[in-house]
TrEMBL record:
Membrane topology field: Lipid-anchor; GPI-anchor
Naturally occurring in which organism (per UniProt): Urochloa decumbens
Extent of the signal sequence: 1-19
Reactions it catalyzes: Hydrolysis of (1->3)-beta-D-glucosidic linkages in (1->3)-beta-D-glucans
Official protein name in the record: glucan endo-1,3-beta-D-glucosidase
EC number in record: 3.2.1.39
Main location: membrane
Length: 503
């Protein structure tokens, strides 16, 4: 998700919601296809191709977790509305200085609006800053940061176009008796939540909530599986469905969202527009993270979005930012291996499964993607997986590339020992842009031109970022730094060269 810690929290704290529909005064938020575009990839899909992928599939709204320059430039004059995130590590600085907020808005909002024609609609100040796992680290800075960003937007003449929000995790509210009609904000942040939402409401802002049924299912072996999904038309309701007054809640999304609405109404804040900032299902890296489950959940979600069907308390479906557009192989896996596999598209923009949009139209793949050569790095045929040097080589390969698909229950979890080693070697080789030195694991590896993929396990070939023609040490650094655009990738690239040199 947007931050590593986000996955540590249960995204769904209650299974039920409010009993009686109410009339609210919020300005309706137009429903549309919206998605999170994460950029933590060693070989990211080029911006122009990604924007075309968005448009070809009807996504007219996108959320960026930070002001990524290549992504923002590509979004210029695209007709796509953009939400730009201000990361948590900048909250303290922006909260402590109006000038810092003004400079951030100038560099990351005004410049892209005026120079590149980016249709910025929201600034997301922080990302789930009130998570319990943060132990209050960002609580004192969040509201002042919101206030300073709002003031900066006013000064820049953008306040009518660009609205402020704070994406929150579902752990900011709870229901002590299990019914969302009794929902309320978490006691330790109740006053802060009221002040924050009141400021957003008074200044034309919105609230964004992140809801993850997958996380509840993954974390709790007793969580009812069918309640995590949207019921199919005509199917009997889950046995875990909850009757709350005259409303039967048959899935966790409706229950969770309405619990937030009940919490807001309890404090006289029911007129604040609420969008879903993140929701989705991963395809790898965990028992329940697979393409079949992701398809079931996301198809149910897309059907609801297309139909405009909201929840009992808010019958009109709000904007829902699906998490996520693409897989990201450079994200932290501290929360779990599934962190790198949330995309409805693979890293290269190819669909993972068939998703039907309005009128049954399927999602379509990215166009114009260029790949590196059709070659893979594998364990030499005459080398034994039991060779004492293999364990260290695999450990090194997986430290600097993505081996999360090798876990038990994952797409490559069924490989034999030789297959595991070959997969790790190839991931490292591809991450280093197929530099020959990256397939020199102490003479244990070799380059082949026959695809070694097996069953559900795909041996990947990376996207050609256009700089792989360089050679040697400068190539490893230049290629990967240029393709990632993140400081972590820059560090990885230097280490990649050291690693291959060591072998």
């Amino acid at each position: 998700m947007g931050s590593c810690a986000a996955l540590r929290a249960l995204a769904v704290l209650v299974w039920v919601a409010a009993a009686y529909p109410v009339v609210f005064r919020a300005r309706p938020v137009q429903a549309g296809l919206a998605v999170n575009w994460g950029t933590r990839a060693l070989h990211p899909l080029p911006g122009d191709i990604t924007v075309r992928l968005l448009r070809d599939n009807g996504f007219d709204k996108v959320k960026l977790f930070e002001a990524d320059p290549p992504a923002l430039r590509a979004l210029g004059h695209s007709g796509i509305q953009v939400m730009i995130g201000l990361p948590n590590d900048l909250l303290a600085g922006v909260a402590g200085s109006v000038n810092a907020a003004e400079q951030w808005v100038l560099q990351n909002v005004s410049t892209y609006v005026s120079r590149y024609g980016v249709d910025v609609r929201y600034v997301a100040v922080g990302n789930e800053p009130f998570l319990k796992s943060y132990k209050g680290k960002f609580e004192s800075a969040t509201l002042p940061a919101v206030q300073n960003v709002q003031a900066a937007l006013v000064k820049a003449g953008l306040a009518r176009q660009v609205r402020v929000t704070v994406p929150l995790n579902a752990d900011v509210y709870e229901s002590l008796d299990g019914k969302p009609s009794s929902g309320d904000f978490r006691p330790d942040i109740s006053g802060l939540m009221v002040s924050l939402v009141r400021f957003l409401l008074d200044n034309g802002g919105i609230l964004a909530i992140n809801i993850y049924p997958f996380l509840s299912l993954d974390a709790d072996p007793n969580f009812p599986v069918d309640y995590a999904f949207f019921p199919s038309p005509g199917a009997p309701p889950s046995q875990a469905s909850v009757q709350d007054g005259n409303v039967l809640y048959t899935n966790v999304f409706d229950a969770n969202y309405d619990t937030l609405i009940a919490s807001l109404e309890k404090h006289g804040l029911g007129s604040i527009p609420v969008v879903v900032g993140e929701i989705g299902w991963p395809t790898d890296g965990s028992k329940y993270a697979n393409a079949a489950s992701a398809h079931k959940f996301n198809q149910g979600l897309f059907d609801r979005i297309v139909a405009g069907k909201g929840t009992p308390r808010r019958p009109q479906m709000p904007d829902v930012y699906v998490f996520a557009l693409l897989d990201e192989d450079n994200k932290s896996v501290d929360p779990g291996n599934f962190e790198r596999h949330w995309g409805i598209f693979n890293y290269d923009g190819s669909p993972k499964y068939r998703l039907s949009l309005a009128g049954g139209r399927p999602i379509v793949p990215a166009k114009g993607v260029r790949y590196l050569s059709k070659q893979w790095c594998v364990l030499r045929p005459d080398a034994s997986p039991a060779d004492p040097a293999v364990a260290g080589a695999v450990q090194y390969a997986c430290e600097y590339s993505d081996c999360t698909s090798l876990g038990a229950g994952s797409s490559c979890g069924g490989l034999d020992a030789r297959g595991n080693v070959s997969y790790a070697f190839n991931q490292f080789f591809q991450a280093a842009n197929q530099q020959r030195a990256a397939c020199s694991f102490n003479n244990l590896s070799t380059i082949v031109t026959t695809d070694p993929s097996q069953g559900t396990c795909r041996f990947e070939i990376m996207i050609d970022t256009g700089r792989h023609e360089l050679t040697g040490k400068s190539a490893a650094a230049a290629v990967m730094v240029g393709s990632s655009g993140s400081w972590s990738a820059m560090l990885v690239l230097g280490l990649v060269w050291l690693a291959v040199a060591a072998w």
